[in-house]
Recover the amino acids of this structure.
């Protein structure tokens, strides 16, 4: 059983998150996939710097955590990517930045620490052939990466 599930009111888990953010600057919250829902992950702590939290859907939790940790470290020393911006990752996929329409609906524990007015950016990743989830042939039609906001095309 997961730590947050063992704590019915979640106050102990939220306090551990608060301590972890204070120690490390940010954390990554992973959400395991289920048969009908792909895995996803998001940062907790960037809001404390006045920055948007970062989200990834459709990657295994450990791969998502690696990507989010790398990008979180980058945005703390540079400005966050702009909506619609495409960023090639060294040794990884091309990503496009999409602002979340309703961050408070998805980032439960970031909201618990920072309130419902948080902002978030999704790092949408292309598949191995460079196709995007808004394309019908993404992952040969298998989908698996929900996009949680509207694209801003440049």
């Amino acid at each position: 059983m997961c730590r947050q599930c063992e704590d019915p009111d979640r106050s102990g888990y939220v306090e551990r998150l608060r301590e972890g953010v204070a120690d490390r600057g940010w954390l990554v919250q992973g959400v395991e996939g289920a048969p009908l829902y792909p895995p996803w992950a998001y940062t907790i702590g960037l809001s404390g710097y006045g920055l948007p939290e970062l989200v990834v859907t459709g990657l295994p939790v450990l791969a998502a955590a690696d990507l989010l940790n790398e990008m979180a470290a980058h945005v703390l020393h540079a400005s966050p990517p702009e909506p619609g911006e495409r960023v090639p990752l060294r040794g990884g996929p091309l990503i496009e930045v999409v602002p979340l329409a309703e961050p408070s609906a998805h980032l439960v524990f970031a909201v618990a620490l920072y309130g419902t007015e948080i902002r978030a950016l999704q790092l949408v990743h292309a598949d191995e052939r460079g196709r995007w989830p808004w394309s019908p042939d993404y992952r040969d039609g298998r989908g698996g990466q929900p996009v949680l906001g509207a694209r801003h095309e440049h």
